[in-house]
């Protein structure tokens, strides 16, 4: 048995759980069941759910925010200022949400079963020029930020600008934008840190949620031992992912900032509380309203997530 | 690229259908051209907004991505009618008479098979993004400002459907030319050498440039 | 059947379809679709009951490609560049440019030839894609040259050769297409094209002067323009200067403080030309005809793009590109030797095919091989046989193959530009044009050899502007 797996880009911290999963499954089945991982060869990153639904490949990764209308239920985890602070917490809450019946139903339209999350740390902003040391300094700052984070930036007077990730470096070097918001690994792979002057350490406006899904029919058609080998490997693969992300990426991140002489901007608790108040509540209300109109139990999903965050805190 | 001069017409049903379809194709191509102008205007607004008003156009990329399929697909059949899609004519350019029409008929048939398959495949792709019961009928939206994508996905199967009609007409045309052994049949693009094509185009541009 | 064999069979099918005269984009799409059906059916061990399923999955998988690949911001440069070219014709800019060049540099030996080269280069700087540049200049420049006693073949050769400049001097649709297919940065490639393009134009100009000096009577100078006449010729050519300025501002960002992206720069250039064309009295009919021409050329290019990308989608399921890259990377001979062989293959192919079709059809397989030749993805400049990082080699190779494709336009026996010039002029045979273009042909071969031997010529400007 061989499954095709559609990822995109290059092998990186963001894909290590899938690589680990392939390794574990192959081990457990003595090489009888293999995952054939393709980086971009099978589909576009925004068409991975379509490919799963067609049955063109059996496993895929995607990010909810790429196409909110395809998967409205999981975009709740992309709301700004949910207060999630660690990868472990992001993982735990994502996994719990993926078990929610409304979420499973939402994804079942695509014949997709949620297998595991790809937990990412909170986005933060890398920029050039004078650092915005208070939130007032954001007025007029041109920043590349999408979705909920873009709306959060608008709240403090910044000007969110859209462009594809691959255009960001050039836009920043040439001054079209002065700042960009990404997770640290993406800041490194898209090169935004190369000529940067500052980095916000604790703005933490939110992140993207990027599940790995499998084709439901293929999963059900799998012989029991293979399915067992696959499902029992998820936790170990995620452990490996989190350790690796914190190790490989975050351990390199701090020294890299120092080496490039990038100023680390840290905001006071009062500043952050004010920001949160201005952004989080209206964004959450808007999300609930929009998604209730789609027939989702939006309030319930939101309470589910915030409830779990509070429990942890 | 072939100019419109190399397609003959007469009073036959085939030729009349050809010209009727060509009118539709011409309008669609013009819409594609206007969409290019729209793209241009969008960029002007975006640059002006950013540099003079300190306020870039929100969702600029999303709008471009929505417009591009209209630009890329609406003229596909128009271009096929004029024989404007690139091909290698080193072999076919040496054929004549019935052999030529047989070869043209065969490749047209294969193209029709592709167009019909893609018409269905792209329609399915549209179908996954469209839902009567959702706000704005949308089941797929753009990354930045959440524009519904179904109009841009719908234009593709529509273009392939019209292309399929065009190919069916050309199949008829080539088939008739083969059956009658015609030298210069109507309603199908006749082969011109690249030099003839470029000369015709230059002449057209010269006229326009004056 | 291994997926590699499958890849080879389907690629063979594609070649047969192309040779049969099927339109290139459709042939690639059909081959890709057939390959996808085969791939999915093989998964079900060719069970007859599953054939319908395989066809449906393949058609849906292929059916995603046209929309999703075309809805791209980077590709939006292509229709814009095309529109600029057509609007510039309609605004009468070609003639104005030639007139200005004649008054300013006509006094040189071979002055009208030099003017033709510079006017064509200037037009190349605003025109993204044009099959008709040579034809237009054949109509504008050749009669003037003949009227003052130019050698017929010489005049024809200058025009045919100068017409090849359009694709290298930015903006260039073909460079944009290359960038999309191999996933390189569009702005960097446009930047990298500038020096080789300008260099080619200077080589042509120098060659014209040198030949006119060596053989008196080949191309007499035109004298006698007053400074007043010279200045009077400028306003007509000014829009070109404006567009070039906009493109320099947006693509090259010389002040480090930019106004926008290359996409926006192209669009602004088009807007400027449109305003001028309207001011010069362009009516709705002319505008509509420019829009129709733009739509047609755009549809032609995009059909090849999505068609080839369906074939590439199939290649994602087969292993052909990586197998070919592995084979090329594992060859015992010098990487330079292999690269030269690849370029020779392009030289042959380029004689039979349109440049855009040729690049699109071959790059999905050839590009990974060139990267492998350079030591693989992520290789550092110091460890590479060409002294280039994997990103840089992508840019360098792009400029070389585009120059190569241009070169094929004047390569005997079927260089297209020579046929075009002969086709426009009743008094010139194809042999005349080929003979006239021979010196330029030799100069181009030397230019390409220099680009291959000294990658720094290509990389100098991008390195300079992107490093700091
Ligand atoms: Na050009
Ligand atoms: Na002639």
TrEMBL record, chain B:
Which membrane topology term applies here?
Multi-pass membrane protein
Gene Ontology cellular component list: plasma membrane
Where in this chain does the record put each Tripartite ATP-independent periplasmic transporters DctQ component domain?
39-172
Give the keywords, sorted.
Answer: Cell inner membrane, Cell membrane, Membrane, Transmembrane, Transmembrane helix, Transport
GO MF entries: transmembrane transporter activity
Query: Do you know which Pfam families this protein is assigned to?
Result: DctQ
* TM stretches of this protein: 26-48, 60-79, 100-123, 154-174
Where does this one sit in the cell?
Cell inner membrane
Q: Which GO terms describe its biological process?
A: C4-dicarboxylate transport
At the top level of its lineage, which domain of life is listed?
Bacteria
Task: Give the matching PANTHER family.
Answer: 2,3-DIKETO-L-GULONATE TRAP TRANSPORTER SMALL PERMEASE PROTEIN YIAM, TRAP TRANSPORTER SMALL PERMEASE PROTEIN
Describe the task this protein carries out: Part of the tripartite ATP-independent periplasmic (TRAP) transport system.
UniProt lists the family membership as follows: Belongs to the TRAP transporter small permease family.
Q: How does it assemble?
A: The complex comprises the extracytoplasmic solute receptor protein and the two transmembrane proteins.
Q: What is this protein called?
A: TRAP transporter small permease protein
Instruction: State the organism of origin.
Output: Hasllibacter halocynthiae
From TrEMBL, chain C:
Subcellular location per UniProt equals: Cell inner membrane
Q: Please give an example of a GO cellular component term from this record.
A: plasma membrane
What stretches pass through the bilayer?
6-38, 74-92, 112-142, 154-181, 201-219, 231-253, 265-283, 295-314, 334-352, 359-382, 394-424, 436-461
Question: What is the protein name for this chain?
Answer: Tripartite ATP-independent transporter DctM subunit
Task: Classify the protein's membrane topology as the record does.
Answer: Multi-pass membrane protein
Pfam assignment, any one: DctM
Its biological purpose = Part of the tripartite ATP-independent periplasmic (TRAP) transport system.
A GO molecular function term, named singly, is:
transmembrane transporter activity
Q: Which InterPro entries match?
A: DctM (IPR010656), TRAP_DctM (IPR004681)
Q: Which domain of life is it from?
A: Bacteria
Instruction: Identify the residues that the record assigns to the TRAP C4-dicarboxylate transport system permease DctM subunit domain, covering every copy.
Output: 12-457
List the PANTHER family.
C4-DICARBOXYLATE TRAP TRANSPORTER LARGE PERMEASE PROTEIN DCTM, SIALIC ACID TRAP TRANSPORTER PERMEASE PROTEIN SIAT-RELATED
Q: Which UniProt keywords apply?
A: Cell inner membrane, Cell membrane, Membrane, Transmembrane, Transmembrane helix, Transport
Where primarily located? membrane
